[in-house]
Write a structure and sequence with these properties.
This protein is an alpha+beta fold. It has 2 domains: 206 residues, Metalloenzyme, LuxS/M16 peptidase-like (Cytochrome Bc1 Complex, Chain A, domain 1), CATH 3.30.830; 183 residues, Metalloenzyme, LuxS/M16 peptidase-like (Cytochrome Bc1 Complex, Chain A, domain 1). The chain contains 18 helices and 11 strands. Strand 1 and strand 2 form a beta hairpin. It is globular, with a radius of gyration of 23 Å. The protein starts with a helix and ends with a strand. The relative contact order is 0.16.
Amino acid sequence: MRRKLVLYFMFFSLLFNHIIMGQTLKSNATIYSLPGGMKIILIEKHANPLSACMVYVNAGSKYETDKNNGVTHLLEHLLFDGTKTKSRTDITEGIKSKGGYINAFTQKELTCYMVLMPKEFIEDGIDVQSDMLFNSVIPDTELAKERKVVIEEIKKDEDNIDYQVEKFFDAGVYTKTSYARPVLGNENTISSMSKEEIVNYYHTYYDPSNMIALVIGDFQTEEMKKLLEKYFDIKSAPPVSLTKQAGWVPPSGKEIKYKEAQTENTYVNICFSAPRYDNPDYFAFYMLTEILNLGETSPLYKALTGGPDPLATQVSANLETQKEFSTLNISVITNSPDKVDKILDATVNELQKLAQEPPGDKLIQGVIVSSKTHRYYQEEKLHFYGMMVAPVLVTSGWEFWESFIDNLQKVTPQIVQNVAKKYFSDPKYIATVVRPTK
């Protein structure tokens, strides 16, 4: 099924190549700040009678400590449990009764609260959002219940091999930085943190000056401005002083960390240093990452999965972009732990090959077209667009996102080769390996 979807999007990209290559992706967004400090982004899209409001809070596991790790995720649950004027039922069922959708998610950099409503009920959705964000009461009975819910979620994920692999990778690669902490926290911290600690965290980070609101859909900008001023222009406390982050130290050699688990496969994850989002090399490096991640046409995929005795069964690449640094993370699944060294050597070899000759112009244009079509597709799904843009918006800012495709279109094959030479002539990495228990 996944292969069929990949082929579908490849066909879609080729079909519309001649149509979209010359088009701009500027959204004509209205961007401003409320007096209370909340940043606002408004995008009118009248394709269907729906509107979505996404509020991003600069609160995530990155801003926690080892003692309160998991408080952000727990608080996300608690904000659905009642405010000074609304019960849990008023919040969830009230939205559903008007044909709407309400949800939230937590990541390392942020927490996002979203509502998707028929356009005639968007004010009701924003009203509920505002109440949750600024007037939640965190009842004791609900706190006890949500602790159990989160702990069960942690236990369930701890039994999932993918979560074990991700957790081991973060702890092994981002050592001594706040990115090493898991978003869910752990059973001990969730059980032991006091209500006072949770409330203090809530009052510290849930301030308008520490939030961004993105509203996209069928509305009139001037009318929406009035609604947001009514519900989100809350008197702000002094600007939040975000926790200073320990600097990440890029790999200085070739280091491998091992862990054993109850699994049949072996999971190899390799981290290379990459340019930060404001580095001139970033977009060419992004292009390199996409070339590595082209599925069955990727040179890395061919090297690791080809031949009579393939080294790997699955291969993917991802450019992880944080505020302070970026990393190229390559994930490989193999059926034998004995193949780990060969996988590492083959991966380094393929990266070095990228520096030997520039990629074809068709390959470059294919990445650009794919990026454009993906953007068009997501923009029509409103809250999915808000979910997709969340990490980029909070990490790098709206201007970075708005000009992303334009900057990508400036990348030439020669620029890609030059950046490959700079970063891959002598690749250094940290690798984590989760292998079957002996």
